[in-house]
Amino acid sequence: MRKVILAFSTLALTGLPLWAQADTVTIAALGDSLTQGYGLPPEDGFVAQLDRWLAAEGADVALINAGVSGDTTAGGLSRVGWTLTPEVDAMIVALGGNDLLRGLPPEDARQNLAGVLEAAQQADVEVLLIGMQAPGNFGADYKAAFDAIYPALAAQYDTLLLDSFFAGLSDSGMPADPARRREFFQADGIHPNSEGVARIVDAVGPMVLELVARAEENAGG
Question: Between the CA of residue 220 and those of 19, 42, 141, 157, what are the distances in Å?
């Protein structure tokens, strides 16, 4: 087994449950406010709901919430080193939304995400990369360049890929109907409410089970 049971001090620092055993697959969710659970009670956030979804599927998983509100891809890159602590077997990477809100250059986002995936590869950690789609207000060229980042990096680094964090809300990712957006989002129209998160988790969950299987295979190898 590649991973070992950690000492109490390490567990306390990382927030990993003390009951987690060596066979438990530990997954760090590296992201921004969407991962962190902005505007929601802790039990309704993305990581908490995903944890319950995985438990209901019988998966032996310990999730670490490494979401930081306001984080860009550059912020994720700056802290990926200390996110990949020795007990981490796999990582969910969901970054890019704040790059889009600020209109940051797609080439910078791509370089930052490549750095995150390189760090995971060096740490022998499996990854599920979750994409973001640019709105049209920055122009067609910006949208095409940004949207292409995630599939290209997933192919380059052999990661699992979910095209959109919002895949569970509509076929195209984000609901086009403003009324539907109000139904699944908080008042800001950006962050999902509890029901929106539940639908997002329903779409993400099967991919996370694939991630768990990859991590278990990697550990066994």
Answer: 21, 34, 44, 21
